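ok so I'm stuck.
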Amino acid sequence: MSKRRLSLYGLSGQIGSIAVTLLGLLLLTFFIGRLMPADPVRAIVGEDATRETYEQVYHALGFDRPLWQQFVYYLGDVFTGNFGTSIRTGRPVIEDIISVMPATIELATFAILIGAGLGIPMGVYAAVKKDRWQDHLVRVLSLFGHSMPIFWTGMIALIVFYAHLGLVGGGGRMDQFYIGLVEERTGFLLIDSLLAGDMEVFRSAINHLILPAALLGYSSSAYITRMTRSFMLDQLGQEYVTTARVKGLSQRQTVWLHAFGNIRVQLVTIIALAYGSLLEGAVLIETVFAWPGFGQYLTSNLIIGDMNAVMTCVLIVGVIFIGLNLLSDILYRFFDPRTR
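replied:
not stuck anymore, here's the structure
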């Protein structure tokens, strides 16, 4: 069988796998909305509504239909982009999410840059210094970053670096004084402030971004460090590394040009997954730092039982993970000629 045909089979299998995963994700979000203890009808009509009003809304929302019919209607709404209206804001849920997502993307992007910037060198260094005190120190730091609750470290960091030392900004994306001074063009505050030429707003945004991004980045660096160390240990034990050393190549050339060069493809997948997992951490860190992003939006709506918003948020998180997995697989095929 030709390589082209094998590639087509692999692509069709991947598309089928994504379709099955999406269907499972839709089933999961649908049943989350039905099994949650919150009553979406009561959240709409209020506690003082009459029985007749309650039943009218219950019927209008289709909750009196069989579950399979409700799921079919749910699929139809999803594929037509109708995710319902948020009880809390009164706006279409998808519009709410589009408005808050740039804040989370901005935070997660800076966090993954910090996480990869710390995790990759630390992982390589730990592998080179295997079983020495440097290796143990890196592993302890990684364990600390992975095991400490992000909401706890967030509160401690706010107390120390904001309340006591005054080195960084507090909650929100910028100081209250600057809110509304910059036109929102992209939703990314750093970009919008640069486009407006307002460096005061830009500095304020950086000042507020650095602490939550650093905490999220440190948390993700723990995972990246461990995986980088594991990949590097596997490569450093290969015969070609010994051959490179025998030929007189320096330690830096052997480690970074040869051993590290062979794990770059694997790191693409690791970093993509770490970037997706930052959404999970962002739910807590955005709540602690009053960051008006996707995580805070999900938390706020979960508290009041706004199931349209909650179900859509869960669905979007799942789609993001699927998309990042697909992207990492594409990049893997692009960088590794053995998979073509």
